[in-house]
Design a protein that fits this description.
This protein is α/β, with parallel strands linked by helices and 349 residues long. The protein folds into two domains: 3-155, 3-Layer(aba) Sandwich (Rossmann fold); 165-340, Glycogen Phosphorylase B (Rossmann fold, 3-Layer(aba) Sandwich), CATH 3.40.50.2000. 40% of the residues lie in helices and 18% in strands. It has helices spanning 3-8, 27-42, 57-70, 83-95, 118-127, 136-144, 167-171, 176-184, 207-220, 237-249, 286-293, 318-340, and strands at 14-18, 45-48, 75-78, 100-105, 130-133, 152-155, 188-195, 198-199, 202-203, 225-232, 256-260, 274-277, 298-301, 311-313. The strands form three sheets. A six-stranded parallel beta sheet has the order 2-1-3-4-5-6, sandwiched between helices. The chain has a six-stranded parallel beta sheet with strand order 11-10-7-12-13-14, with helices on both faces. A two-stranded antiparallel sheet has the order 8-9. The longest helix is centred in the last third of the chain and has 23 residues, at 318-340. The protein is elongated.
Length: 349
């Protein structure tokens, strides 16, 4: 039995997914979308709740109640930490104990991003039939708060392979100037963020660290370029403007290209030299696993355990980040020059 069979049982199970799907583009929404498609391919009956189709919490709560009451699903699988949804699902589980309640935790920040009702969460987790976490480190957060899970616990990374038949269509979504930037720059680095946000006072996705990196890297590689894919540019616009001003002050406006909008980024991993993920907190980063899947080398912070093959640097340490990236770039450019027959002394003797 495959991992999904272990989690969901045989294909007679019918599943209602409660979570966002693209847009917006982000790790959780991509996972929910791909998981839904994959389970359907495996023969499961799966539907995504319409609760998130409007930006209205009350409408969402009423929608999930209506769906549970009127549709014959055996599993309600929750992919959101929003308290109003968790409370609603808890009440529904008490009223209708026959259906199974699943929760996936996509990062270890359930208790750290907001003031949460710990006593309620202890009761909620005891009602779960299954908890899926994207990494062992997510469980540490629950242990610290004395959370006990009523059902089974599965550790399952969030990565599901993209459908490569969609690549040509996805590439049409990108501007011509982005593709020219990638073609004309070397080496090219890719970083991404669903939105600009903060954790413990620092930039979660490390756009500030990427700018510092490029200020140093262009001294050795003047033609280097950074593509920063930012799905949602509406959040923390003042901080975005602050970083754009810093880019101009450093003279990096021709070396850094921001890509906005809710577009899949996985085709870009086939076209860039290196992926970086300088986050200061994380779940199981889908972009990181996508990069590895497409053989794009990756440098990431050590804020959480990373998959094999990732080069790690000390979280929020600019010097270590620059050093690890530079070593990787030196290696990649050396290998590229050998392949192209244009070797010059790129590495120190």
């Amino acid at each position: 039995m495959n991992s999904y069979g272990r989690i969901y049982g045989d294909t007679t199970s019918s599943i209602l997914m409660l979570g966002v799907t693209p847009p917006p583009m982000g790790g959780v929404s991509v996972h929910v979308s791909r998981l839904t498609a994959l389970l359907r391919q495996l023969g499961y009956k799966v539907e995504v709740s319409k609760a998130f189709s409007r930006k209205n919490a009350l409408w969402g709560v009423l929608t999930i109640c209506y769906e549970v009451l009127t549709k014959s699903f055996s599993i309600l699988h929750v992919h959101t930490p929003s308290m109003h949804y968790l409370r609603t699902c808890y009440v529904l589980k008490i009223l209708f104990p026959s259906y199974k309640l699943y929760l996936t935790l996509h990062n270890p920040r359930l208790f750290s991003e907001r003031a949460v009702p710990v006593d309620f969460l202890r009761k909620f987790f005891k009602k779960l039939d299954a908890l899926i976490v994207v990494g062992e480190h997510v469980l540490d957060d629950l242990t610290q708060h004395e959370i006990e899970v009523g059902g089974q616990i599965f550790v399952q990374n969030a990565f599901i392979e993209p459908d490569e038949s969609e690549e040509a269509q996805i590439m049409k979504l990108y501007r011509d100037d982005l593709l020219r930037f990638i073609d004309e720059r070397s080496p090219v680095i890719l970083a991404c963020a669903s939105r600009l946000n903060f954790y413990k006072g620092d930039d979660i996705y490390g756009v500030d660290m990427c700018i510092t990196l490029m200020a140093q890297l262009v001294r050795k590689y003047p033609n280097a370029g950074l593509v920063f894919a930012l799905a949602n540019k509406q959040m923390n616009q003042a901080y975005l403007r602050e970083n754009i001003d810093r880019i101009r002050d450093l003279g990096l406006q021709d070396s850094i290209c921001f890509v906005h909008g809710h577009k899949p980024i996985w085709p870009l991993f086939k076209r860039v030299d290196l992926h970086v993920r300088p986050t200061n907190t994380d779940g199981d980063a889908i972009s990181l696993r996508e990069a590895l899947h497409f053989n794009c080398p990756s440098v990431a912070s050590d804020c959480v355990p990373r998959p094999p093959g990732v080069v790690c640097f000390r979280t929020r340490n600019d010097a270590d980040f620059i050093e690890k990236v530079t070593v990787e770039i030196d290696r990649l450019m050396y290998e590229k020059s050998i392949q192209e027959g244009s070797y010059t002394e790129l590495l120190p003797v």
